Amino acid sequence: MIGDSMNLQTAKENKDRQLKIKTELYHDNFQNYKKYNIPKAQLVIADIPYNIGINAYGSSPQWYIDGDNKNGESDMAGKQFFNSDKNFNLYEYMHFCSTLLIKEPKEKNKAPAMIVFCSFEQIPTLIEVGKKHGFANSYPLFFIKDYSPQVLKANMRIVGATEHAIVLYRDKLPKFNNNKRMIFNWMKWPRDNKTVKIHPTQKPVPLLKTLISLFTDVGDVVIDPVAGSGTTLRAAAELNRNSYGFEIDRFVYKDAKEKILKNIQMGLLTINRG
Predict the structure, then answer these.
(1) Cβ density class 105-130: b for 16+ within 10 Å, e for less
(2) Which of 8-12, 78-82, 156-160, 162-166 has the highest mean pLDDT?
(3) Domains of the chain, start order
(4) 39, 49, 76, 87: which is deepest, by most CB within 10 A?
(5) N-terminal to C-terminal alpha carbon distance within the chain
(6) CB–CB of 134/44 below 8 Å?
């Protein structure tokens, strides 16, 4: 009996070590998801456009050549981050998220969730639109930086040093792996010095790993409908989660594959967890 038990345990450990994780980034709009056969997700997490328009660099030194207003305006002056930002349809996005999240299971602590990074002003709209797509419940998250991108406003007023997100879910509270620790609704925004920056609103891998760890388990599926730099996929892969992302800008997509996901083979991976 003892020998049989040990053999079963060894078999389980070997199977665990051979867990296959998939990481895919598609150069396409998330609306075209059907042709990719993507499995439903435990967590959808994304940074949606902030709709700041042509003042995207308005408080940043990047507005000027070499960051100095004496040198005149740079190519970024009066520009939005991406041309696609103005075409972002929040209702289509919410419909996608509602469709691609798994159904709420009967078991406790198994329900899916959606996390949306957003501006503070977008939170009420996200709550309202979320409810129309079945996300009856939500709560905000606040992230505290030890720096501010609003350098040009530093001598004019108090500058912003926070980021915001909202957790949306249907009826049951989402899966929550807090390991009996109390998790506050504010967190420090860590600097990510290990990951090359290829996107103006790129989210740090360490922060994404914290959030993904809280709301998913090993082997779960994470989807980022507007993947940008691909750091969500990178964070998920490092945590042994399956991940799928969409990015329509071909230059960002190329950089994400070559600079952020370069050490992650696109396709099936064998993760050695032993």
Answers:
(1) eeeeeebbbbbbbbbeebbeebbebb
(2) 162-166
(3) 21-49+88-143+161-270 (3.40.50.150)
(4) 49
(5) 25
(6) no
